[in-house]
Design a protein that fits this description.
Blueprint: H1 3-15, H2 25-39, H3 46-55, H4 70-81, H5 86-98, H6 113-124, H7 128-141, H8 159-164, H9 169-175, H10 187-211
Helix pairs in contact: 1-3, 2-3, 2-6, 3-5, 3-6, 4-5, 5-6, 6-10, 7-10
Length: about 210
């Protein structure tokens, strides 16, 4: 592991100490590992992939009053302090700016492979057993209802509607999580996502059985 990557790991650990459990260092670590796993199957710049994975949630806008510029500033300041080449910095910032689900309508059509890899890794960590756990953790963090039979999922929300949404945790599966399998960019990402997607479908079946006391 290079000194730059080691220093980035330490920086992110310190920066995210005490963060909400779905967006803490352990989330970053899983996305970093998944990114490296996917990167093995693609022709890419591994330094850009690793730095982007490590810094992608350094200041998640939903915990910073919706500010989408803060993560870019923090990341640039850190990377410049590490004497990272400007070209690499720009590529990392591009990934951070365009990775999120809510920004998918604004992202350029021709995405670099490094963004595709880290985006797949981040989305994979939002599904499966970990995804279920993170979703309920965040729903509890926001004091949202787990489920309400009369509240239906809001599909095709705009970016602003999505950011303001305080729907039920179960609705979030239909508004985001179950859509992610078909948004994967890489073959490796698609393979991993398929298994995790099926786990969520089984979870939802069991949830409704128990909710309805079948």
């Amino acid at each position: 592991m290079s000194n730059t990557i080691q220093n980035t790991v330490q920086f992110v650990k310190e920066k995210l100490e005490g963060a909400e459990a779905g967006h803490d260092w352990f989330h970053i670590e899983r996305v970093w590992k998944l990114s490296k796993k996917i990167a093995k199957t693609e022709n890419c710049n591994l330094e850009v992939v690793e730095l982007s994975a490590l810094l992608h949630d350094i200041a998640d806008p939903k915990f910073h009053d919706g500010d989408e510029t803060l993560a870019l500033k923090i990341s640039r300041d850190f990377l410049e302090g590490e004497n990272v080449d400007e070209e690499i910095i720009q590529q990392v910032l591009f990934v951070i700016q365009n990775i999120s689900f809510k920004n998918r309508g604004e992202a350029p059509k021709d995405l670099p492979i490094e963004l595709k890899i880290v985006q797949d890794a981040d989305r994979i960590d939002a599904i499966g057993a970990i995804g279920v756990a993170r979703t309920f953790n965040f729903g509890g963090f926001k004091n949202n209802l787990m489920y309400h039979p009369d509240l239906k999922p809001q599909l095709n929300m705009s970016k602003e509607e999505y950011k303001k949404s305080n729907g039920t945790t179960i609705n979030h599966f239909y508004e985001k999580l179950l859509l992610l399998k078909d948004l994967m960019n890489t073959e490796e990402g698609k393979k991993i996502a398929k298994e995790r997607h099926n786990f969520m479908l089984n979870f939802l079946d069991q949830f409704y059985k128990e909710w309805n006391v079948d």
